[in-house]
Structures are given as structure tokens and as C-alpha cells.
Amino acid sequence: MSRLSNLVSRPRRTLAALATVLVAVGITAASGADFTANSANADTTFATGTLTIANTKQAQAIWTSTSDMLPGDPARVGTVDITNAGSLSGVFTLNRGTVVDSDATYKLSTMLDLVVKDCGDFSSGTPTCDVGDPQKYGGIIAAMSTPVGLGTFAAGEKHRYQFSVTVNTLADNNHQGKNSVVPFSWAAA
């Protein structure tokens, strides 16, 4: 008799042998020495920084007096201190808002010469505005139609800006008694 016919003639014995082999394999696999490891990181807290502008003349005019101006008079000068009061650095700009002229034909804003100087970073110390300070804008107020780049301010960085305005010598009698309301604002991104 062959082995195969032996297995077929005794099915119980064959099944018992097969079951024993399967149990032995199962026990061996289940009792095997499997190694595992775990690792975890602590919770991570995410937070955003701030970009805030401090303005020493918030909601105030930059100049103390701009009345009774004449062509050729000395410049009227005003200063404002701008600080990055936030925790992030930011690119700062100066913007001229919508000008309101008292006369639509003879607009005084077309005859006002403006110079804006950056007197420098004075995060520590007293600021001074000197002749050699960099000019950020120079021209007619009416022509200041795009934001003026002031550079990147680090957190806590503070600059003084000097504004000088004169009536252009080309202003004629048609500009007498006129006025222009000119808003300025600061932005950071």
C-alpha cells in the first residue's frame, strides 16, 4: 500500500495528524518573540505672532500749523514716530489718502511740495533728524499716488519721520485762500 492510500484509508488518523501539525505551527507563531516599540512627541502648541503699528500722532495732524502759507516761505516741519509694536517683522509703507481740495479748478494739493525723511531707527536713544537722513518721498502731494516703501521693521523697531511742506513758487493768485485736506496712513505686511 502506498502512503496516499494509507492516509485515505484512515481519515481520522490523517485528520488528527494534520490538526496536530496545524496546532504546533499556530503555537510556534503565536509564541514567537515579536519585538515592538513606540515613541511619542509632546503636544505642540501653535501660535501666531502680531504685527502692530504704534503711531505717536494717531488720529492727529503731523504738523502743528499749516495755515497762512505763502509761496517761497520756509518749510513747515512736523515729525511722527512709527513703531513696530508687534512680535513679527513687517514691511512698512506710508500712504497718502484721498485729498480734498477746496477748489476743484485750482487745487492747492498740486502746489504743495512734500519731503518725507527717515530720521532713522531709534529703538534705544533719542532720535535726531539730520541733513543727511534718507529721503523717502520728495514731490508734489497730489502726485503721491502709490504707497511709499519704508523698509522692513523688526519687532520693536522705531523710526522718526520728518515731513516738510512748502507752497511751490509756481502757485499764483488763483491759489490764494485755498486749502487741501491730506490724510496720511501707515501700513505693514
How are the SSEs ordered, and which strands pair?
Layout: H1 3-9, H2 11-30, E1 53-55, E2 76-84, E3 90-96, E4 100-101, E5 112-121, E6 135-140, E7 148-153, E8 158-167, E9 180-181, E10 184-188
Antiparallel strand pairs: 1-2, 2-8, 3-7, 3-10, 4-9, 5-6, 5-8
Protein architecture, described:
This protein is α+β, with helices and mostly antiparallel strands. The chain has one domain (53-188): Sandwich (Immunoglobulin-like). Helix content is 14%, strand content 32%. The protein has two helices and ten strands. The chain has helices spanning 3-9, 11-30; strands at 53-55, 76-84, 90-96, 100-101, 112-121, 135-140, 148-153, 158-167, 180-181, 184-188. A five-stranded antiparallel sheet has the order 1-2-8-5-6, with no helix packed on it. Strands 7-3-10 form a three-stranded antiparallel sheet, with no helix packed on it. The radius of gyration is 40 Å and the shape is rod-shaped. The model has no long low-confidence stretch (mean pLDDT 89).
